[in-house]
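haha ok so turns out i had the wrong file open the whole time. this is the CORRECT one, sorry everyone. sequence first:
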Amino acid sequence: MFGNIIELVQKKSRDEAGRLHGRGMKEAVHRYLRENEWSHLGNGAFSAVYCHKKIPYVIKVSPNDAAACVYLSTCMQAIGRTPYIPEVYAAATCMLEGDAFGVFAIERLREVSRNKDREYRASEEVRSYKMLRDRLNVPPKYQVLVDVLSETEKYMKKHGSGIHYDLHNGNAMIRESRNETYAVLTDPVTTNGLSKKFKLPEVFMD
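then structure:
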């Protein structure tokens, strides 16, 4: 299934370069997902998420935020190393008329429930994640998360583009594992000034 989406992204970006922008690609991918029984689960500021009743992961479509695409691609390289980043199983990215575009297969997480004390406390920890941006007095449990954020920032700067940290509990979701509750950072960064020569990471596929 995800391979078909990658083929769609590659074909559209190759055959219609210069004629199809990020919004057009987003509509093409959304149409493909709906036609294949994926249901729209929700929207973020820069993305949309789809689920399928027979598939355990979700599809996240990020049509116009390079930093978000780089972050999720970097998370894919650190899968299983920390509970504070999403598990990304596959990714497809491309540039279309200056827009960054990405489609990602990601584990299905839950929204924070304010009615569950343990979940709410975990999400409130995100407020302390601001220390990750400054790299000051970081507890060892967050080291891999810091490494992922650092690699994301390094990649953006290497390609002449800026990054903005958006660290708050609205950009976190809940994972429960072995009776522990974790706040997973799903959208901690956004683009702040995109270079016209910016290149996204190569397509990754599991």
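The mean pLDDT is 81.
again sry for the mixup
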